Structures are given as structure tokens and as C-alpha cells.
Amino acid sequence: MGFNIIVLAKQVPDTRNVGSDAMTPEGTVNRSALPAIFNPEDMNALEQALRLKDKFPGTTVKVLTMGPPRAGQIIREALYRGADGGYLLTDRAFAGADTLATSYALSAAIRHIGNPDIILGGRQAIDGDTAQVGPQVAQKLGLPQVTYVEEIKECAPEYVVVERHIDGGVETVKCPLPAVLTVNGSAAPCRPRNAKLMIKYKRALCPAEKTEDMPYASEYEKKPYLTLTQLNCADVNADLSQCGLAGSPTKVKQVENIVFQAKESRRLTSSDADIEGLIKELVSSHTIG
Amino acid sequence: MNNVFVYCEIEGQSVQDVSLELLTKGRSLANELGVQLEAVCIGSGIKSVVDKIVMPYGVDRVHVFDDPRLAPYTSLPHTSILVNLFKREQPQICLMGADVVGRDLGPRVSSALTSGLTADCTRLEIGPYEDKKTGVTHQNLLYQIRPAFGGNIVATIVNPDHRPQMATVRSGVMKAEILDKNYKGEVVVHTVSDFVSDSDFVVEVLDRHIKAAKNNLKGAQIVIAGGYGMGSREGFQLLYDLAKELHAEVGASRAAVDAGFCDHDMQIGQTGVTVRPKIYIACGISGQIQHLAGMQESNIIISINTDPDAPINTIADYVITGSVEEVIPKMIKFYKNS
User: Fold this and answer.
1) How far apart are CA A155 and CA B27, in angstroms?
2) Alpha-carbon distance values, A226 to A198, A204, B28, B77 (Å)
3) SS3 content of chain A, % helix, strand, coil (to 5)
4) Is A249 close to B323, i.e. CB distance below 8 A?
5) Containing domain of residue A212, as a range?
6) Splitting chain B (338 residues) into consecutive groups of 10 residues, what average pLDDT does each group show?
7) Residue A268 domain-assigned?
């Protein structure tokens, strides 16, 4: 009994470690100053998929990522950890997409790939923190969803039992398949890269990543698995008016740097006199006590 | 028609704080637009209970959907109710809480209605928007203002062409205020089967555990927060000692939570709790923007840090340059003496 699993993954700028050069003097984001990484919660989702593959022989795990050609790196990272293949959804028509247009494109690609039993993804991506794409993909495909998943407890041909985080607690739900599940960052971390798989897939590339003068061009003829599947707007039969900027109901009106109102601070030392003075002042103003 | 709607999140027979906060915000937006405020309450055994809770916040119409199958919350039936209700009522704005329920429901509803949704807004305002491409100026749009990119920028988002304009807001960001405890609005109890089909009830909640919140950070008058500079879980004990003396709550920065010094529900900041205490004592916190966003409205801010140039010091009223291990025991001692 195997499952067809698609893992949605996004390449994101690492907003957790933002340096002083992350913003340009004009106040826009300097994307080149931030390393591009595998969205952390998508890694947790990949791990849940790989665990099902370990448990149920015949299960296939394929990664679907939308982005520019360099997002092929996401697929390689997944292959190194045990995924069976991947799809890069890339087209200029997708540029400027908000979450709704992104979900539309991803759902078109999933229809094109066909017949998933389980679609997994991270709860949210760290560059937007919206948590919208999972539920929106589910709605577009007419599938049920379970968000904030901690662990897949049980998986049967017709249903899945998962533990999910809710505000102030946990919940166990049973959901029919096929379904969309989004996984929390507190779920099990993803396994590390496997050395053998790294050697095998080191040169795996999407067609868009290939260059004319590649030294290993002949390898791609001998080993078809080194050429990753690339899909564009036409391949997945996507309606252009629902893609990219045109298909995005939300518009960015303006973007500004955060400026905090600096205060006139009183500087104190850790001396007894300073601390005692401060406490007395706070007590006499009824701020404390 | 074209009113402001708030989805009220219900646990048992009570309405969550975040929904009451949004009713107050929704009331002021409705006043500015000259329209009515409507609330949607979906649950089990809530008829003739919830309307009395929400009405005093200035609600002109409460839509009640009461059915044993509607609680606990599952995505599909609540989605169907909102989608079908909104098709009929054509709201211009819909607000919901940016917690687990709102962040599960909001995107599904927005996708079904192809309307835009902005997550985790920190401010909501009304204003015009000029579409530079078409040259058309839209009046009275909802400005959905939110931090983006890890809290490093603030973006103003608008939905010029699609309705409703949907936004989620975290708990504690807006303030709930009773408008008039005798406020009289209309109650509409809907027939649930007109909105939801049996096939929507496919997801089954097998088991559910809710623990009462361990802290009361949101409402605390005094907050003592620790950062990565506290060094360890044990290091936080000092903060609990001081908190006990001052009757304060202990919070933490994201870095301290990520390092495992304390529980996730203690996190203060853009992706955690927003606090507005009388006094905020930041201990070993450098002051990343995402943290400052959740505490900058504190009345008095005291920063204790070995680094005299810690970013948080610029917004602090008192900056104590020194180690937490030295300063806090002294604060306890002098407080006891006073």
C-alpha cells in the first residue's frame, strides 16, 4: 500500500538572520544580501512525507516548488534527503503573485501532476508568515485540509489521523484522503542529507539551470533522472488572468522601514545607589508596589 | 449590504478576546464608512447566549448558526457558512482573529470568493488608493498594514477590486471596548442546512485538550522579559523571583524561546503576544525589531543589558548598563526594603 505524496516547498530569503545590509538605503529589501534557503517548515513537512515512505513501501514523494530557476536547489535538497523527484514550476507569468495567485498556480500544477493522496507543506513561509497557501490550495482542489499538524499518527488508504496544535492545546483529527496537510515548525525536524543520494543527485538540474558549456553534458543523456521536471504556465494549463500580478487581488500600496520613536533615556549603572534610586522613584510614582 | 463583518471565534459558549477586540475595531471602521457592523457566530448551544456577549460592542446584526456539528471548529462547514452568507450579504470588509482558527478559515474563504486576504495586520485604516496603471482612484479602501519580511518593513496592502476586503489580526493588537451595554441590534438565527451540506462534515475531531493559559501576559501591568542574554532556562529563575515580588508576569524574546529557555506561549513580539504594561523590564534583550513591535507601547521601559548600545536602549526610559545577575537581586533587595 503506497501513497502518492506531493510536498509543497518554497525557497525563501533567510529573514531570521537579517544583517544591517538587508535593507537598501532606499528602504527596499536587498534580497541578494540574504541567503536563499529551504523554507524551514517545508522541511518539517518533507520529513512527515519521508516517514510515510519509510513505513509504506511503494510510496512516492515528489516536491513541487514555484520560483525562479535557482529554486531548483530546493528540489536537490529534497532528493538528497530521500524524495523521489521534483517539479520546478517556473514562468515569468507567475511573477508578482500574492498568496491567492500562488495557490492557483500550484493547484494547476498539482492537477497536471495528477492523483496525489496527500499534499503536504509547511504551515507558513518565513518571508511572508501568512499561512495562506496551504488552505487556499486545498480549496482550489476541493480537498479537505488540516493545518498546524504536529504528527501523522495513522495513515490508511482512505483516511489519515493527525495530531494538530490548536490555541492552548492539541487536537486529534481524522481526515479523509486525498487531503492537504500543513506542518508546524515544532514537528519532527527533517533528517539530514544522505551521502549516497548527494553523490547521485549532485548534478541534477532543471532545464532552466543548464548552461551551454556544461562540462558534464553527456551525463544527462545517460542518466535521465538528473534532469528535473520543469513546468511552465502552459504546461499546467493555467489561466493567465489568474496568475502573477494580474491574478492577485491584494496590491502593495506602500512599503516603509520601521522607525521607532527614540526616547530620551536615563542612563544608570548597576551600583547600589543607582538601583535604589530607581526603585524608590518607581515606588513613589506608584508604578510598582 | 456592504457592511463590516467580524467572524467571532467561539470556544464553548464564550467569545474569544480577539473577536471582541475586532468588534471594537470593526465598529470604528463602520462608523468611518457610514455602514453597519455585523457579527457571525458559529457554534453549538450558543443561541440566545452569544448575541448578549457581542451586542454591547456596537453590533447592529448578529448572524447565529447553532448546530451540535459546528463545534469544535472544523474548516469546511465554517467555510461554507461564511462563503454562502457573504455571497448574499456582500460585505465590504471581513475581519477575523489571526490565531489557529482564523488562519485556517480565512485563506479558505478568501480562495472560494477570490478575494484578497492580509494576514496578521497590526493596523487597519480607511483611505484612498490610486491605481497607477489604470489611473483610477478608489475611495474608502481598507488599508491593511502589517510587518513583512521578518518584521523589517511595514507594508500597506489594499484590495481595490475584490470584496470582501479580508484581514486577520492577532490577539492583543487591538483593544476591546464596550460601546454601550444596552446597545440593541438585530439577531438573525439562520437555518444551518441552508448554508452547509452534509458532505462538509468529513473531518472528525477525535480528541481535544485545551489547557487554561499558563500566563496572563496580555493583561499584565508589569512585565519582566528575558532574552538570549539570560543564558539558560535556569537563568530565567531570577526573573521569576523578581516577578513574584512585583506581582508581574514573565515574558521572553523570540531568541530566548528558540534557544529553549522558556515556553513558546511566553514569546512577546510580532509573532507572539503584544503587551502594553505600565512597566516593561527587558533583561538581556538586544531588541530585534520583531520584539520591539510587541512591546513598544509599554508606558515605561527599563532595559538591563551589559551592552550599552543594545538597540532596545533607544526606546527605553531607563537604561541600566550591567549584568542581570547583579542588577535583579539588588532590585529585589531594595524593593523589599522600601
Assistant:
1) 46
2) 12, 4, 58, 45
3) 35, 25, 35
4) no
5) 4-247
6) 96 95 98 98 95 97 98 97 98 96 98 95 95 90 88 87 95 92 96 97 95 79 95 94 94 91 88 90 91 90 95 94 95 92
7) no
Closest residue to B152, CB basis, from A258, A270, A283: A258
Interval A23-78: pLDDT, tens: 666 555 666 777 899 999 999 999 999 999 999 999 999 999 999 999 999 999 99
Q: What is the pLDDT of residues B122-139, one digit of tens each?
A: 999 999 999 888 889 999
Candidates 3.40.630.30, 3.40.1190.20, 3.40.50.1220, 3.40.190.10; CATH matching B222-337: 3.40.50.1220
In order, the DSSP letters of B198-249 are GGG---EEEEEEEPPPS--TTT-SEEEEE-GGG-STGGGHHHHHHHHHHT-E
A268 to chain B: closest CA residue? B320
Q: Quote ipTM for the complex.
A: 0.90
pLDDT attached to residue A19? 61
Percent of the residues in chain A that have a pLDDT greater than 90, as a whole number: 78
Q: pLDDT band for A18, please (50, 70, 90 cuts).
A: low
Q: Assess if residue A259 is contained within a domain.
A: no
* Contact across the interface for A268 and B103, Cβ inside 8 Å: no
Can you read off the three cell numbers belonging to residue B280?
Answer: 516593561
Q: How far apart are the first and last CA of chain B?
A: 61
**What is the C-alpha separation between B179 and B176, in angstroms, rounded?**
9
End-to-end CA distance of chain A: 66
C-alpha dihedral (B26, B27, B31, B32), degrees to nearest 10: -30
For chain B, the structural domain boundaries read 4-200, 222-337
pLDDT at A26: 56
> Pick from A75, A49, A48: which is nearest to A64 by CA?
A75
CA distance A182 to chain B (A): 10
CATH number of B4-200: 3.40.50.620
Q: What is the CATH number of the domain that holds A208?
A: 3.40.50.620
Domain pair B4-200 / B222-337, same fold: yes
**Nearest-angstrom CA–CA distance, B78 and B65:** 10
How far from A209 is each of A212, A227, A228, CA to CA, in Å? Answer: 10, 10, 10
**Mutate which: B18, B78, B110, vs A, most A CBs within 10 A:** B110
Q: Are strands B300-305 and B279-283 parallel, antiparallel or unpaired?
A: parallel
